[in-house]
What does this fold into?
Amino acid sequence: MGKQNDGAAPGSDDSKLVSFSNLVQSDRFPIRRFHHVEFWCTDATNASRRFSWGLGMPVVAKSDLSTGNATHASYLCRSGDLCFLFTAPYSPSIAASDGPDPSSTASLPSFSYSACVAFAAKHGLAVRAIAIEVEDADAAFHISVALGARPVSSPVVLDSTTTIAEVHLYGDVVLRYVSYITPASERDNSSPDSWFLPRFEPMDEVSSFQLDFGIRRLDHAAGSVPELGPVVSYMKRFTGFHEFAEFTKDEVGTEESGLNSIVIVNNDETVLLPMSEPVFGTKRRSPIQTYLEHNEGPGVQHLALLSEDIFRTLREMRKRSGVGFEFMPPPPPTYYRNLKGRAGDVLTDEQIKECEELGIMVDRDNEGTLLQIFTKTVSDRPTLFFEIIQRVGCMLEHDDGKLYQKGACGGFGKGNFSELFKSLEQYEKTLDARRVAGPASA
It folds into this structure.
């Protein structure tokens, strides 16, 4: 899959990384933030409850049979500004012969029974949509299509309050535009059909785990593709996003495998979309190639979840790892013996000790510091996983005097990639050994 790039630098010949301070306005339409991530699966109830329990994200809203939706079951997990939506199909035969067309009851106008079933069979539990809030979803859709984006779902106005539309991103993943007709100041923040999407109702409290591990928003959504150049050019053309960072095999790989990666971002640096391609000609196949094979094509490889207190988040997650999520093996003790010299001006001795106990890695750039850790893959296939992060530094002041943190403060853990790759390579070696040896004899 993909050309033999032998570790060559990614991107097109005219690619230039543009700093925030020197950026000329380039977004094709006003973009505000990540809105939600939708997973397509075969059992939305159990998927949403597992993610709720494992990440500390209460299930706060629903659209299912109990709300009059005879097309699909959708459950929304939320923590801070992070929203995960889990959707599974109902049988198209459930509607009574004299009842309404089942598709007319769907809360998501682009939902398709056949597409969802095919998606789940092909990819397993995976991300179907990355949704971003824009100023005008109708305008964003038509501008995108005019600039070469492949249309997936034309704009639809839901209940005279919200517009939703979709274009193709990569693989079977769509970029979903969401905009509100009613200003935020006039919306009822207590009702999910106002602050999220129409036709969603609040969950009963008894049906939701009331948990909070400190996760607050989606920091970035990273994709894996066979070849970066065409995908980056396609996405930049219709979004206007600029290249924010670039990593090559020589910078982030090991002696045995690697990847090339490019991060594109909107002007305000609120929507970060890294993408990676495998490199060939190395001793072992790239983990990106492993993803592409098991996912049966391009898709979202990992979601980076930003915590306001990564130590608290990980303590809570590790308590529930048996039914939640497990983590990749930590770096060796030598990594932490050198940590004080690298981050002793930012982290206390106690925090450095806790980093070692919890397996947190620390990296920094010339602006800030990044604390990060990776989970193992979240389902049967070695595909999707989470990155839990906390960013320290890069505080800027708004015109109203309020402070905010600059996007991607501390970078993307470039200095830690080799440690991650070593863990991935070691895991793949154990799988290779079992494949060679075959199943254990009875």
Q: What stands out?
A: The CA atoms of residues 222 and 329 lie 21 Å apart.
